[in-house]
């Protein structure tokens, strides 16, 4: 758990204009910066970035948030990953509960990671430069139908033949970073063999190079494709501190905007599929990196879009890969996600299919792809004979681990019903037999908690002021707090939550920090945050006076209500009479404060 104090300090140090400006061209427009929204298609800029609020807001689609929120939405990072990315940019080290390393050792690790990243960037530049003068490599790419524009977009390059060509880019060829990044291989003297006594040599030789980028656009690895008939046909970077195959998708960085525009991500089996599909009008394709699809891959994709289509060859190997992808998808499948599986004829890959039958025919195949629910049932049925009790029992046996991996949802219930029908059972029997978590068919589902009504009047005014200027919460005295947190109020719980969170952030709290904190607590404050994000910055001193006046009105209302109750009770005893006098004095004091405030303003 990252401490909230660190988040606040981080948002105070980063400049959201710089963060957003790395991805979106911005122009100064009055007090804010303007640009085309990266989250929806538009021709006129409605996307604003406020340097004073440290917040972005789109008047077209309503997207808004802090620098952390922008990285999460734009790059598909997780919260912790986004925080770490921003922290690295301003020289901060994220404290983690499980990280017990001394600060000096943690800083050393960070420096080492930066050295590896620098080595990969320099190598990428070198390979791209070499491609310009490598006619054989260029002819190979041209033969695959690629243009120079696509090659440049994906940063394609060429690793020349020879044992140590990287010396031209790295005079410090013996540096440890080259081995740890996977660019060169270090062998003992006994292993040198036919390498003419070389202890260190380039990993990639005479190959077309595909840079692998992370969600931030940094080169973290390479895939090399042999030009002739050598083996292996594709050679990937090894696992390094920067690069883990089970966590990265080739082409995701380049495809992010296209995925939003197309409404789905297309997952293919290789680098050339991705690059060729981009050339042929499908720039929203990505690929796993020579490994089976993992739950992390699926999670990254579903951060970008609610629809994912996996494309596999129709042969046995393609079916096995699809089965592994299905298993990776199950923990993340839900009612608001659409996951489908496309199986092309065995003689085709996506590239050849489009070239022979056209882009429209391929798009039709995508739209008709098999939904996850049907593929799961097909996998469970397999070769089982549903006409026999044994075949139906075996189908249930094979379906059990798949259904257990699904979270409780309407989708799971639909699949349970489908399996029950196929195996002559009832949904409740399936859920009991499979010991499914939170059974849906046999248990009554608790109704969702009623959504809180939006605050109005004084309460809304006070909440709005505290969200826009959270530092004011730390200035409230006990009398003001008592008035705000009146338990009779319909929104007392919501207001108490806001005051508590704002006061915990301290006297230097700002709108962006509180907005990030409130967002993690649920959607109740989202309309206020969006409203404030869309308006010009307000003056803190004016807000302080307005808040004081609103709290005074709130206290006056509470006093009037209690006085009316006492009068209605007849003021029968001395206690009630004393309380009436006390409240009347408080009421008069508040009137004098209000008159004094009006005089100061005049």
TrEMBL record:
<keyword id="KW-0548">Nucleotidyltransferase</keyword>
<dbReference type="InterPro" id="IPR050219">
    <property type="entry name" value="DnaG_primase"/>
</dbReference>
<dbReference type="Pfam" id="PF08275">
    <property type="entry name" value="DNAG_N"/>
</dbReference>
<dbReference type="InterPro" id="IPR034151">
    <property type="entry name" value="TOPRIM_DnaG_bac"/>
</dbReference>
<dbReference type="GO" id="GO:0003899">
    <property type="term" value="F:DNA-directed RNA polymerase activity"/>
</dbReference>
<dbReference type="InterPro" id="IPR006295">
    <property type="entry name" value="DNA_primase_DnaG"/>
</dbReference>
<feature type="zinc finger region" description="CHC2-type">
    <location>
        <begin position="37"/>
        <end position="61"/>
    </location>
</feature>
<keyword id="KW-0804">Transcription</keyword>
<dbReference type="Pfam" id="PF10410">
    <property type="entry name" value="DnaB_bind"/>
</dbReference>
<comment type="subunit">
    <text>Monomer. Interacts with DnaB.</text>
</comment>
<dbReference type="InterPro" id="IPR037068">
    <property type="entry name" value="DNA_primase_core_N_sf"/>
</dbReference>
<dbReference type="InterPro" id="IPR036977">
    <property type="entry name" value="DNA_primase_Znf_CHC2"/>
</dbReference>
<dbReference type="Pfam" id="PF13155">
    <property type="entry name" value="Toprim_2"/>
</dbReference>
<keyword id="KW-0238">DNA-binding</keyword>
<dbReference type="GO" id="GO:0000428">
    <property type="term" value="C:DNA-directed RNA polymerase complex"/>
</dbReference>
<keyword id="KW-0862">Zinc</keyword>
<dbReference type="InterPro" id="IPR019475">
    <property type="entry name" value="DNA_primase_DnaB-bd"/>
</dbReference>
<dbReference type="InterPro" id="IPR016136">
    <property type="entry name" value="DNA_helicase_N/primase_C"/>
</dbReference>
<dbReference type="GO" id="GO:0005737">
    <property type="term" value="C:cytoplasm"/>
</dbReference>
<dbReference type="Pfam" id="PF01807">
    <property type="entry name" value="Zn_ribbon_DnaG"/>
</dbReference>
<keyword id="KW-0808">Transferase</keyword>
<dbReference type="InterPro" id="IPR013264">
    <property type="entry name" value="DNAG_N"/>
</dbReference>
<feature type="domain" description="Toprim">
    <location>
        <begin position="263"/>
        <end position="345"/>
    </location>
</feature>
<keyword id="KW-0479">Metal-binding</keyword>
<keyword id="KW-0240">DNA-directed RNA polymerase</keyword>
<dbReference type="InterPro" id="IPR030846">
    <property type="entry name" value="DnaG_bac"/>
</dbReference>
<dbReference type="GO" id="GO:0003677">
    <property type="term" value="F:DNA binding"/>
</dbReference>
<comment type="function">
    <text>RNA polymerase that catalyzes the synthesis of short RNA molecules used as primers for DNA polymerase during DNA replication.</text>
</comment>
<protein>
    <recommendedName>
        <fullName>DNA primase</fullName>
        <ecNumber>2.7.7.101</ecNumber>
    </recommendedName>
</protein>
<keyword id="KW-0235">DNA replication</keyword>
<dbReference type="GO" id="GO:0008270">
    <property type="term" value="F:zinc ion binding"/>
</dbReference>
<keyword id="KW-0863">Zinc-finger</keyword>
<dbReference type="Pfam" id="PF08278">
    <property type="entry name" value="DnaG_DnaB_bind"/>
</dbReference>
<dbReference type="InterPro" id="IPR013173">
    <property type="entry name" value="DNA_primase_DnaG_DnaB-bd_dom"/>
</dbReference>
<keyword id="KW-0460">Magnesium</keyword>
<dbReference type="InterPro" id="IPR006171">
    <property type="entry name" value="TOPRIM_dom"/>
</dbReference>
<keyword id="KW-0639">Primosome</keyword>
<dbReference type="InterPro" id="IPR002694">
    <property type="entry name" value="Znf_CHC2"/>
</dbReference>
<dbReference type="GO" id="GO:0006269">
    <property type="term" value="P:DNA replication, synthesis of primer"/>
</dbReference>
<comment type="similarity">
    <text>Belongs to the DnaG primase family.</text>
</comment>
<dbReference type="GO" id="GO:1990077">
    <property type="term" value="C:primosome complex"/>
</dbReference>
